Amino acid sequence: MTPRRVLALFLCLVALAPLVLSEFYVTLLNYIGLSALVALGLVLLTGVGGLTSFGQAAFVGLGAYTSAYLATVFALSPWLTLAAGMVVTAVVALLLGWMTLRLSGHYLPLGTIAWGISLYFLFGNLEFLGGHTGLGGIPVVSLLGFELKDGRDFYFLIWVVLLGAVWLTQNLLDSREGRAIRALKGGVLMAEAMGVDTARSKIVIFLIAALFASVSGWLYVHLQRFVNPTPFGLHIGIEYLFMAVVGGAASVWGAVVGAGVITVLKQWLQDLLPQLFGASGNFEVIVFGVLMVVVLQRAREGLWPMLSQWMPVHSSRRQVPIADFLNKQCSFGGSELILEVRDVTKRFGGLMANNQMSLSVRAGEVMALIGPNGAGKSTMFNCISGVDGPTSGDVFFRGVSIVGLDARRIARRGMSRTFQHVRLLPAMTVIENVAIGAHLRGHRGITASMLHLERAEENSLLAEAARQVERVGLKDFMFEAAGSLALGQQRLLEVARALASNPCLLLLDEPAAGLRYLEKQALAELLRRLRDDGMAILLVEHDMDFVMGLADRVVVMEFGEKIAEGLPEEVQRNPAVLQAYLGGVA
Q1: From 520's CA, which of 111, 230, 249, 381 has a CA 20 to 30 Å away?
Q2: pLDDT surpassing 60 at residue 54
Q3: Which one of 3.30.1360.40, 3.40.50.720, 3.30.365.10, 3.40.50.300 gives the CATH number of domain 337-582?
Q4: What span, in angstroms and rounded, lies between the C-alpha atoms of 216 and 285?
């Protein structure tokens, strides 16, 4: 059965459910929908973006309490209170995100626990919100003149909102902005080098997850028509995270699966376990703890990826879109001085990695930077590309100093690079990885992506990525996971990703490492064509045959210093170079 038919069947079951099920199961489905909406935000935030949050229940509470207070005290329409709740949540989320998302490692989840607990106690200690007693008398929601007074009436509103959020999230992840978000989990350094504003992407997904939770709170409070702090505690926040993990933390539909499994299982266990043990208590928490350990050991990707294996991949996923060529970022001409490095020194504490290094690269030239292991070549690359700024000295790119600029801003000026240690997103396809390199050549934002209004631009970006994939000889692997490629092919993929940005200056850090002989010959031919087109290329490589047959000029480093510079044949005869490589003159 195709994915479209599975989706159509699911939508039919959702539409028919309230017509054939009892009140109890309709209520259960309502709570599944409410929980899935929060878990969907966690899929985006934690599963895709790699930012763990235990505080989403607090955002549910913000939406619920804002609506409850405004609707009861000021008699505002529930639809107006929905907008107000989202505004309040957005402001609080931006403030908390600005503080929290600067943290990393275990400090980030600890930070979310801290503000989650704080907001929970805030709800319970403010008298105008009813304290721990809560607020009642919340008005019903009216839709097209029809009052949604009970769970059966409210059912369709909950599920329409949830399915709309699923659609928006899926659209986002299948876009240019979505690739930037997916790069947050394990690829921040690479993404910044490709021009992605990773700090902005983190704030965006934090805000979207908070807004989804806020809408869930609004639905909850007008379904219950009563609110107190109990549903917004830290333990509920952990439960939402549990739903996302069990369903599939990186899968949009995993939020629905996880919410369904946990909600139904919780209800069954609450009824069954007290009878088995002959006493009342929260025994289901123990079972959930054991279940979490089992899931993490046996199905780390969650239930949805296991279920989706039974559905074939839709054919459109393996088709390259036909689109016009993108506008070029850089135009090449003459022998313009593209890069000039002047007396750059880089220290790491007491270690001198680069000392008074100077070099230059012109348009239409391949400059090779060679030297023994540990000579400081990759450090030089990092100083040039903005990954690590120099301690002293200056770097000019197209006549303008770029010292002090971060990698993202330098990339925007027309510089692109590969890495000594391959930096890819292994779960994404080859074409998607390369499309990250074209990120700067698009401009449509989050709203357009979520509403599917950026298709023309997206098709152009993917078509450009496909051209670069074919250019480096990986056409047959276009739709394979990047992590499944051999090391040499992954290096070629990095070259294609760098070329997708249409750079003026291409920095290649050991691009031939791991390539077979014919692959090296093809790469060399590609670089010669790029040089003939006017591109400036700065190359770090250990394969001397590859370097000497390709480079126009060579700079040799040893112990962080330049010991020789000149034509390839001159450098090969230089006594200092022979000493560095061979330990003496033969």
Answers
A1: 381
A2: yes
A3: 3.40.50.300
A4: 23
